[in-house]
Amino acid sequence: MTENPKAKISTHSVFAWIFSLLFLILCAAILISTISTFAQFFFSSAIFYSENEIPEVIINAISNLIIALAMFELYVVIKINIHAEAQLTALHSLLESAPRFIIVVCAALALEGLVLVIKLIQDQKTEELLAPIAVIFSAAALLVALGIFLKICPRRVGITDAPDDTREI
């Protein structure tokens, strides 16, 4: 006969929903906190700012927004995996959403490294520049690894590597 189309409740789906909601709530909290901090600084400060106030507030806002974006991408990836009907569809959606998340993480790492470089140069602590440079190179290495993964991974799940020249125009 026909099966009930309702999804079965499993431990995996319950925890996936909990984590996805937790990531979304934390993302919203970081976003609201960053906007309120930035607005409070903007409206409570005098017209003329001291030398390093504006860059510090902007750098902290950028760092917080990068973290919020990464958390939102985690939420999106988890939600895609929750709504997958079959195992093959789940694997296909994971192969589509994981590179996007990794790219966001790489961009976040590169921006955090750049923010740290700017902050250390402003504070004239050039001897501590090794750590942010290592973060930037780590982001680059992660992007290279993603490129290699995408090159060796099949484009469609269940389809072996077939030459693209077989299509007719």
UniProtKB/TrEMBL annotation:
It comes from the Bacteria. Keywords: Membrane, Transmembrane, Transmembrane helix. The chain crosses the membrane at residues 14-36, 57-78, 98-117, 129-150. This is Phosphate-starvation-inducible E.
